[in-house]
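Milestone 3.1: sequence recovery, worked example.
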C-alpha cells in the first residue's frame, strides 16, 4: 500500500476494525517513511454487477460514482462521512444480495432515495431533483407535498 503523502511502500497497520455491516475492514496505517497516518478499507467483491443506464448501455457498477452522487446531495447538511459510508455500504449490500448481475439505474435511484428519505429530507429532495429530472418549481412542490403533510400531521399529534 502506498502512502498518500510521500508515496512510500513501507507502512505498518496500527489498528484494524470490522465495519458495522461486517463486509468491510477498516485499517489505520502509519507510514514508516514520513510517519503520517492514513486509513484503508478492504471490501468483499461478491459479483461484477453491471448497471443498465437509461439509454440502455451497460457499465460496471461504480461505488465511487454512487458515493459522489450521495455526497453531492448531502453537501452542507449535518451528515457525517460515517453516515454516508454506511448508506453506500447498505446500498451495495442490497444490490448484491438480489443476486442479479445487472441492475438498472431506476432501481439504484429508488434505493438511494428510500435511504436518504430516512436520513435527511433536504438531501432526499436534492437527490430526487436530479434523479427525477425536476424541470420547474411545481415538480419540487409535488415531491415536498407528502413530506409537508406528514410533518403537519405529526405536529398536530394525530
Amino acid at each position: 500500500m502506498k502512502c498518500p503523502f510521500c508515496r512510500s511502500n513501507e507502512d505498518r497497520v496500527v489498528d484494524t476494525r470490522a465495519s458495522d455491516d461486517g463486509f468491510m475492514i477498516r485499517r489505520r496505517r502509519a507510514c514508516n517513511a514520513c510517519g503520517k497516518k492514513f486509513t484503508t478499507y478492504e471490501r468483499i467483491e461478491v459479483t461484477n454487477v453491471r448497471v443498465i443506464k437509461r439509454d440502455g448501455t451497460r457499465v460496471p457498477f461504480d461505488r465511487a460514482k454512487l458515493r459522489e452522487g450521495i455526497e453531492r446531495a448531502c453537501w452542507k447538511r449535518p451528515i457525517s462521512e460515517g453516515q454516508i459510508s454506511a448508506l453506500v455500504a447498505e446500498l451495495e449490500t442490497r444490490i448484491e444480495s438480489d443476486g442479479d448481475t445487472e441492475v438498472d439505474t431506476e432501481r439504484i435511484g429508488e434505493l438511494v432515495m428510500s435511504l436518504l428519505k430516512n436520513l435527511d429530507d433536504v438531501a432526499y429532495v436534492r437527490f430526487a431533483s436530479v434523479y427525477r429530472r425536476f424541470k420547474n418549481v411545481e415538480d419540487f412542490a409535488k415531491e415536498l407535498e407528502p413530506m409537508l403533510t406528514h410533518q403537519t400531521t405529526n405536529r398536530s399529534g394525530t
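The longest helix spans residues 137-155. Strands lie at 11-18, 24-31, 37-43, 50-52, 58-60, 102-104.
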